[in-house]
Amino acid sequence: MNTIWRVDIHEFHLLCKTNSKYQALALLIERVVQSGGLSSEQKLPAQRILADKLKVTHGTVTRAYDLLVKRGIAYAKLGAGTYIKQQAQPLDEFDDTDFASSMMPLMGQQQIIANQMLLLANDQSALDVLLRYKLNGDVSHQQRFKAWLGQKGLQIAKQDLIFCQGAQQGIYTVLDVLTKPGDVVVHESLCYPGFYQACDALGLNTQSVDITDEGIDLAKLEDVCQHNNVKAVYITPNCQNPTNVRYSERVLNDLLALSKRYNFFIIEDDVNYCLPEKWRLPLWQSANDRVFYVASLSKYFAGGLRTGYILAPVLWQQAVLKSVHSQCWSVSMMNFELLARAFEDAEFARNQELLADEIRWRINALKSLLDKYGLSAHFFGLNAYLQLPASLPMHSLANQLKAHRVIVRTADVFSQNGAAQHNALRFTLGGPQTRNAFELGLERVEQVLLNLNQELDVVI
Questions:
Q1: DSSP class per residue in 124-154
Q2: The whole model's pTM is what?
């Protein structure tokens, strides 16, 4: 087991400018592991030797090693030292590149949840509470989730958060309380396919309205309202799925005015990931009597936890709770407890920063590739929406990508009944779980684009 590793003292001092010394050392080692400079089962230098080399205290190195253990990067052998832990499995070049599933790469979420599981396993009083029926969680869950949302600027006073098993259940529940079979609900012409499934299950009459560069087309929406008794309008204003359109403040204000004029409610879906500098307060914050807000942590942390929540107008809270209760006697609170604990751990905030940095890098990498071949996509959060010229049909390009082991979504997946009104592809940046897997995906995409260019040259 090789123990030869020369610490980069210059980089350590640079990291110390923005981190405490032990955090800087832990970050330095983590980066070396990610770059392959330290391999699995490799022993880290003895703490006193490394402390002398960096001219820091022995305790600084001890704290750094402890932090690496907490993050799942290293492990300690009693009396033998600290070793690098087995990292992600090597990339299989025959695996498909998943540019279709909207989710985050795992960059430490596993270890955060594992740590909270260990703490919870030793908290008998918390387990006693969690293992009993609770329709909408414990008081502490409300407090901790509200505190976390408060850090983002979302102020919740009278309303309770209504917990649900992911945003899909939240969308279904809100539609269930607002409508009856045959009622008209309006949606963006391209939108989340799960919305259609919920409407079909409830027997609703769905009406699509085009999307402009500022959001839903208000003139066409008003025309629908003039000819129908619209019960609800479903929108994704922060980051429209799949087009990545961000609603303007003007459209949001005018939409709210229309909701009052024609007496419909707004269902605001905020599940899609936004980079922290682009996220904004929901419309619900200023109109909590007209708006049902549905969100989750699926695309911000991990989809498998199924942790969604609803903010409903006060007068509708009990109806929403009753609908959730009819679907499941009580929402399982184990995952909400784990996340509530994670919110209070500095590793959660750090993980969110790592994910944001990775998504920014992936946006720039894919944009550079598309620019190279004269293609322009609209980027926002996890998704890239690539509108194609008529000469390049989306299904043809999607099939060529699939032949090169790249999976993407065609725009018709997001339209009502699969109507192909838009010629576009949606790439999701979070599917590949590692930087190497993402780069392999880009190489595959470039091979397809290169072949297209060669075919065009032959035609010319």
A1: HHHHHHHTS--TT--HHHHHHHHHHHHHTT-
A2: 0.88
